[in-house]
Design a protein that fits this description.
Elements lengths: L8 E2 L9 H10 L4 E7 L4 H6 L15 H8 L10 E9 L5 H8 L6 E5 L20 H21 L7 E2 L6 H4 L7 H14 L3 E5 H6 L1 H14 L3 E4 L12 H11 L12
Parallel strand pairs: 1-2, 2-3, 3-4, 4-5, 5-6, 6-7
Helix pairs in contact: 5-7, 7-9
The structure holds zinc ion (2 copies).
């Protein structure tokens, strides 16, 4: 089944580098049923100043507070189109700061919340390369994958925020540059079962699809086995990236008969 006539939502987009109007216009032009704007909590002044994030964008817009961010959504006045705008956040799960981050997020109401793990106990960004030393890189990579999956499960089972989607569940590949092919399927099924039990969707992420299609295919297989819902997110920072790789994601949805997360449209 092709994209024609399907209601396609892009549930993961940023506005730290591009104005909200141009992101929305791109979604509209590409015929999206909905676009979710989900800025990182680390792009807010209060969070950046009080939490020692190990992973954050060193450039891009910092929002003074939630009011300034919410005002962005009011810039989209053309609500007559078929494209819905959802307001959301991408929220880091960092065990030590879950209460503080949870309280920040709970100050407002959201159409969608993504949860993501960007750092592990070594306090390094997961997208940073694992150093090659003593020839034990593959072992370190396996340990990292185990820890990454454990922290993602912990995030799913925590109730620090009422999130809908676990974003980019295989993002560790960006730093690890490999994955334990004999263990990964078991790890992903375990993650997907945890997500299913807790009514969370796992994301088919466009950036991950660009980096390693095989790994996202394995993720989709795990979602099928666990009967876990999926969500599509381009993770776009620029208008041209909205709905990026959506055809690849839809191909996986069709191939494995995956259930796509349905988000309610609220009107705040
Ligand atoms: Zn992320
Ligand atoms: Zn993102």
């Amino acid at each position: 089944m092709s994209r024609e006539g399907r209601a396609i939502s892009d549930n993961h987009n940023h506005i730290l580098a591009s104005p909200i109007e141009s992101m929305f216009e791109s979604a509209m032009a590409k015929g999206a049923a909905a676009i979710s704007i989900t800025e990182h909590v680390s792009q807010f002044k209060e969070m950046r100043e009080s939490i020692a994030f190990s992973s954050y964008h060193s450039e891009g817009r910092i929002f003074r507070d939630l009011n300034e961010y919410l005002a962005e959504f009011h810039k989209i006045s053309d609500r007559s189109t078929h494209t819905k705008l959802r307001r959301g956040l991408e929220v880091d799960y960092i065990s030590k700061y879950q209460k503080q981050i949870g309280e920040f997020v709970a100050r407002e109401r959201w159409d969608i919340l993504l949860c993501s793990v960007h750092e592990l106990s070594d306090k390094k960004d997961i997208e940073e390369s694992i150093p090659e030393n003593l020839g034990i890189k593959s072992l370190r990579s396996e340990d990292k994958w185990r820890e990454y999956m454990a922290v993602q499960k912990e995030a799913i089972e925590s109730d620090f925020i009422p999130f809908d989607v676990l974003a980019h569940p295989v993002r560790l590949f960006a730093g690890a540059k490999s994955f334990p092919s004999d263990l990964i399927d078991e790890m992903l099924v375990d993650l997907a079962r945890t997500a299913r039990r807790n009514n969370k969707a796992l994301e088919l992420n466009a950036t991950d699809l660009s980096r390693n299609k095989e790994l996202v295919l394995r993720l989709a297989t795990a979602c099928a086995i666990a009967d876990c819902e999926v969500s599509f997110g381009s993770d776009a920072h620029h208008p041209s990236e909205v709905l990026k790789n959506v055809d690849l994601a839809l191909g996986l949805v069709d191939k494995f008969h995956l259930r796509v997360k349905k988000l309610e449209s609220k009107h705040w």
